[in-house]
Amino acid sequence: MTDPSPRRRQVVFDHDGAPDDLLSLLLLTRYDAVELRGVAVTPADCLAEPALSVTRKILGLAGLDVPTAVGTLPGRNPFPLAWRIDALRADALPVLNREDPGVAGVAGADALPAHEQLAVWLTRAPEPVTVLATGPLTNLAWCLDRHPSIASRIEEVVFMGGALDVTGNVRQPGHDGSAEWNVFWDPDAVRRVFDADVPITMFPLDVTDRVPVTPDLARAFGRTYGDPVGDLAGSLLALTFGTLETTGLPYCCWDSLTTSYLAEPGICTFETVRCDVITRGESQGRVVRHAGGRPVRCAATVDTGRFYRHLLGTLAPGAG
Ligand code: AGV
Ligand code: CA
User: Fold this and answer.
1) In whole angstroms, what is the distance from residue 174 CA to residue 183 CA?
2) Which residue's alpha carbon is at the smallest distance from atom 13 of ligand 1?
3) Ligand 1 center from residue 181 Cα (angstroms)
């Protein structure tokens, strides 16, 4: 008798359309360990319409018929427009436009806005679902607020966000720089999710800063040129170039490292930290260690080489 096949995690993905989020979506489409049940787009680090469009095209490229929804809830602290327009560039990449848009089925949004759709996905799932969030937690917070019993439908929240023992990445007038952007966009949402009875695994800047997008990593995808998945991955990484020159901070594999946890959890080590989030004032959006806070399983160290090999091995298996 053969072993029963390992259980596939039921996953709902909530992302916010930046190149790194799209690379994460591409990874998810390749993972045997993941059954993708729905993809929500939060209009935070992206423009909603092209981010939804590119999401559907990536699912189409993978041959997956997965429902999508786009968010309408606003955040308190908007992302720079210069970052949000990257979704327009990604949506125009040739590798995603080999077919007529009508044929690829990219036209028209699903009926429900993402927060309501997320509630439906979680409620109707046959077993508890992992919510992977690589953008703000606004949709999930709304679900928990409006339908508190949804907490029991959630197996684990896996979230890219926070900066515990390192400087944040927000550089805005009136802010002290201690926050990470996904939390800063909607600090109250993180508070709401922290208050819920759900297991949280968080990937703060403390680890994600250790996996920058390097020229070597991006160029390695050239070795499988002609393969649509590898070409898309390399193109998404190329879109991140210039970040250090324009912001003073490198572009990192923040979201894709977080996503890799669903397939290869041994890339990082973890420690449980009692956390709180500051929601007002010049440190708003900062996640802090706090003795009375809620326990969060936080990624603490990362095997950088193993992560880069995971990316290449998953998205450009022939690259060696
Ligand atoms: O703070 C990291 C989060 C990740 O979810 N995002 C980018 C990733 O999708 C915000 C962000 C921080 N710095 C950025 C960001 C930059 N230089 N460009 C675009 N987005
Ligand atoms: Ca993101």
Assistant:
1) 16
2) 169
3) 7
Rounded CA gap, 182 and 190, in Å? 9
Secondary structure (H, E, C), 202-253: EECHHHHCCCECCHHHHHHHHHHCCCHHHHHHHHHHHCCCCHHHHHCCCCEC
**Which ligand is located closest to the Cα atom of residue 183?**
1
Cα 173 to Cα 161: distance, rounded to the nearest angstrom: 21
Nearest partner of 235 among 15, 19, 17, 16, judged by Cα: 19
Catalytic residue, from 29, 42, 55, 134: name it.
Answer: 134
Q: What's the pLDDT at 320? A: 75
Q: What is the pLDDT of residues 213-223, one digit of tens each?
A: 999 999 999 99
Tokens 């680890």 sit on residue: 207
Strand order of the β-sheet with 154-160 is 68-70, 34-41, 9-15, 129-133, 154-160, 200-203, 294-302, 268-277, 287-289
Question: Residues 284, 281, 201, CA angle at the centre, nearest 5°?
Answer: 15
The dihedral built from the CA positions of residue 6, 12, 16 and 17, taken in this order, carries a sign that is: positive
Banded model confidence at residue 318, pLDDT cuts 50, 70, 90: confident
Give Dmax over CA atoms of the chain in angstroms. Answer: 64
Catalytic-labelled residue, pool 14, 20, 42, 45: 45
Instruction: Determine contact, residues 215/308, Cβ cutoff 8 Å.
Output: no
Length of the chain: 320
pLDDT at residue 106 in the model:
46
pLDDT band at 107 (very low <50, low <70, confident <90, very high): very low
